[in-house]
Amino acid sequence: MSRSDIDALLAEPHTGVLSTLGPKGWPHAVGIYYVAVPRDPLELHMWVYGKSQKARNVERDPRASILVEDGEPYVDLRGVLVTGEARIERDPDEIFDLGKQIYERYFLPRTGIAWGKSPADNVKRQSAKRVNLVLSAGSFASWNHAKGRDTITTSGGNP
User: Fold this and answer.
1) Pair type for strands 16-21 and 27-32
2) Selected residue with higher pLDDT from 159 and 104
3) By the 8 A CB rule, do 32 and 15 touch?
């Protein structure tokens, strides 16, 4: 997939699978909501609890990846695997802002409850326990079976 195809897929509100390395070196994979920031390098921002295993893993070893895939059946699958180094950001204003973006991206379409006092208060309360986990893309692998062939595109950097 081209970089614009990757950016378009990541702009859709899919659940990603974030993989970090646990304390004994084994993969730790979890479903996660994210916000993609299409710059170079691409960044994926995730709103996570500061004491979570994924946050502790990134603090110990920044290597991580996220898989985002869409489509059913198999012939319609498209996806991207982003691999790179992650970091933890602790700025309270940025944590709150990311919480708002996650709310508007994933919860607003399901609940219909517009951003206002109640959602803002809830995000503010949760933000006190959260951090921004940011994955900066180092490489990509992408696929789009809907294009009529099993093509996997990999890149050692930005496509």
Assistant:
1) antiparallel
2) 104
3) yes
Q: For residues 107 and 114, is the Cβ–Cβ distance under 8 A?
A: no
Gap between the Cα atoms of 110 and 108, Å rounded: 5
CA 143 to each of CA 6, 64, 81, 99, 153: distance values in angstroms, whole numbers, following the listed order = 9, 20, 9, 30, 6
Domains and CATH numbers, the chain: 3-144 (2.30.110.10)
The C-alpha angle with vertex 85 and arms to 79 and 87, in degrees rounded to 5, equals 115
- 3-state SS class at 80: strand
Residues 53-90 pLDDT 10s: 999 999 999 999 999 999 988 888 999 999 999 999 99
pLDDT digit string, tens, across residues 30-60 = 999 999 998 888 999 999 999 999 999 999 9
Strands of 22-151, DSSP E: 27-32, 35-37, 43-49, 63-70, 78-89, 130-144
